[in-house]
């Protein structure tokens, strides 16, 4: 597998060779779920932007986000969070967001 070196010196991320399907998630929605509170709890980064930039992913637009190879993101997530891959991280972020919202309205489970 080809690798590329990132700004943080990581050289074990897969390089996009043009054959990898990118992330199809909606960037704005992802930013809503991967909040600073979530990122601080489950990664060493304080926000999603720092997380992505440290991996060498320049994400200014939805298209930039979609060009990130899923395999490269999965490796980065596994190395820099408590999750096995990007899908698990996003799913957990949704659960975290829901729990946070329920606590904010003082929802009590039965």
Describe this structure as you would to a colleague.
This protein has 110 residues and is mostly helical. A two-stranded antiparallel sheet has the order 1-2. The protein is globular and about 40 Å long. The N terminus is likely disordered.
List keywords for this structure.
mainly alpha, two-stranded antiparallel ribbon, 51% helix, 110 residues, disordered N terminus
> What value does the Rg take, in angstroms?
15 Å
Mean pLDDT: 82
Number of E strands: 2
Query: Given the structure, what is the number of helices?
Result: 6
Which structural class do the helices and strands define?
A: mainly alpha
Low-confidence stretches: 1-11, 16-20
Helix content: 40-55%
Shape: globular
Summarize the structure.
This protein is mainly α and 110 residues long. It contains six helices and two strands; from the N terminus they run ββαααααα. The chain is globular and about 40 Å long.
SSE blueprint:
Elements: E1 3-4, E2 13-14, H1 27-33, H2 36-42, H3 48-54, H4 62-66, H5 70-80, H6 86-104
Antiparallel strand pairs: 1-2
């Amino acid at each position: 597998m080809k690798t590329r070196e990132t700004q943080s010196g990581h050289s074990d991320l897969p390089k996009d060779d043009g054959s990898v399907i990118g992330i199809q998630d909606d960037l704005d929605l992802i930013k809503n779920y991967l909040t600073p509170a979530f990122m601080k709890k489950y990664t060493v980064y304080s926000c999603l932007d720092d997380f992505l930039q440290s991996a060498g992913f320049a994400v200014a637009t939805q298209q930039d986000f979609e060009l990130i190879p899923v395999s490269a993101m999965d490796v980065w997530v596994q190395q820099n969070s408590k999750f096995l891959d990007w899908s698990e991280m996003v799913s957990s972020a949704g659960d975290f967001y829901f729990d946070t919202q329920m606590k904010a309205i003082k929802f009590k489970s039965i």
